[in-house]
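[User] I wish I could look at a protein chain and see how it folds. I have put the entry right below:
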Amino acid sequence: MADATLEVFRGNQDAGSATQYKVEITPGMVVLDALHHIQQKQQPDLAVRWNCKAGKCGSCSAEVNGKPRLTCKTRMDSLPLDKPVTVYPMKSFPVIKDLVTDVSWNYRVNKRIQPFTPKPKTDWKMYQEDVDRVQEFRKCIECFLCQNVCHVVRDHDKKEEFGGPRFFVRVASLEMHPLDNASRIKMLKDELGIGYCNITKCCTEVCPEEIKITDNAIIPLKERVVDEYYDPILRLVRKIRGAAKSD
């Protein structure tokens, strides 16, 4: 048994500061347990969002010691306890209260993406390799840690021009689906701003589901955008076809 100090943000988007709390550490305790201890014993009005405590709902996202993490999967004994453990809300989103942030922007982006659109008279048969390719993307729990760590969203606040890693994953799950008949390539370029991503792989590093966001979603989508809009041969073909239609 030992004590640890948690430095927790208290406040809202207008004002706030860090408050320190002493917590008795027990075997197997995670950061979310420590926050619950603070709620139960010291500060009942501490606002913390959580649901499953099993790393599957994505609700308890926060920044622990400066790194975006799920508090329910971050063990206290994995952190240095000789100094305060800092717990702050995700910095890319407005703070509602304490550790709870307003992530509604993400859902607005999601609504803009054309949903799964099967080919007419689809024969609902797929090769296992096609199933495996898109199955990885379906593991996303929408914790939005990847959105939070992305420098385009976090440091440059490009929310109007940029969709973020989570939604590149969603587009990849649709674009790479063998039975989908829609094209979202123009949207990736013009509305979701995939060109802003410079492939730092920070989103992959924080993903609790270990989705290879950069390698398996973002890079293949970037290649499709380049092929569609910047390949000189395809540009020439489109120009010729456009001239033929005008005649």
